[in-house]
Amino acid sequence: MAVNPAELVIDASLVRRLIAAQFPQWSDLEVHPIEPGGWDNRTFLLGDRMTVRLPSAERYVLQVEKEHRWLPRLAPVLPLPIPVPLAKGVPGEGFPWCWSVYRWLQGDTLAVERVADLRDMAKDLTHFLRALRQADAVDGPLPGDHNFHRGGPPAFYDEQTRQALALLEGQVDTKTAREVWEAALAAPFGGPPVWFHGDVAWGNLLVKDGRLSAVIDFGTSGIGDPACDLAIAWTFFHGDSREVFRDGIALDRGAWARGRGWTLWKALIVLAGMTGARESEKARQLAVIEEVLADHRRFG
User: Fold this and answer.
1) Fewer CB within 10 Å, N side or C side of the chain?
2) In a shared domain, residues 71 and 136
3) Are residues 124 and 182 in the same domain?
């Protein structure tokens, strides 16, 4: 069903109506939006032990069924909590797609000031990602529309990347950036498909008492090449913590070349589309690009 995003209002009132109509046993619980609310989905706190998660656009709907099928199978083999679906809602009350109720996971989103030791954070994260890679991948979801082709060859975004490079000529070191991109294309993944998260970013990592406490939002997960999970090396870690992450993640040189490519692609397209954006956000994307380029100069 095609929906005009400008006409779709996803707010606490909608969630209350959906819960009352489909899960009346929870209709007396309070509903509050969770901030930041995310881009692919809008998330609301239901009572104090559950969350409601609704796709924000049709292109994210495929993630609902995937998470309901696979997260209960992954959760028992992972060393940290992940979202466990409790119920799946259906279209109603003017909302056109399926949606989810999850168990609430406590913790704050990752930030440097919330971490006791970045090296321990890097160890905890690599331990989790290695365990995820070792999970049974039989019949798992291969890269495709459901996860915007994460886990596939970065060449899927070749045209987009080159367009961004052309637009950013003079703003970034496009010569080295093209080298990074070509190196990513020249290092094809040759291993068996394994599970990956697909969006290992600060907003999807929860911290409690200074340590990594949970990993959330598996909407871009799947089985394939885990190199896309390396982006956190340049978007968050630095110095010693990045080296701890590099050592602990146990991926080969080709994976790191592809990981740099994935990270560069995302930063370039975000920066290229930032007309009128805040200077602080532009500076953040430029910093990520420079970290990737410096890493290529050192290891590429």
Assistant:
1) N
2) no
3) yes
For 70, residues 6+ apart whose C-beta sits below 8 A from its C-beta are: 140, 141, 218, 221
Name the one residue in this structure whose structure tokens are 């294309």: 185
Integer CA distances (angstroms), 119 to 9, 148, 227, 253, in order? 42, 31, 20, 21
Domain boundaries, position 71? 5-103
pTM higher than the cut 0.70: yes
Are 200 and 229 in contact by the 8 Å Cβ rule? The answer is yes
Kindly state whether residues 180 and 167 are assigned to the same domain. Answer: yes
Model pLDDT for residues 165-192, shown as the tens digit of each residue = 999 999 999 999 999 999 999 999 999 9
Residues 124, 49: one domain?
A: no
pLDDT of 5 > 60? The answer is: no
Judge whether residue 2 has pLDDT over 80: no
For residues 95 and 137, state if they share a domain: no
* 89 and 119 co-located in one domain: no
Q: How far is CA 16 from CA 21, 52, 84, 137, 149, in A?
A: 9, 10, 21, 37, 34
Of the candidates 58, 62, 94, the one whose C-alpha atom is nearest the C-alpha of residue 218 is: 62
Domains identified in the chain, total number: 2
Whole-angstrom CA distances from 281 to 14, 176, 233, 275 are 32, 22, 19, 11
Q: Are 224 and 143 in contact (CB under 8 A)?
A: yes
- Domain holding 137: CATH number? 3.90.1200.10
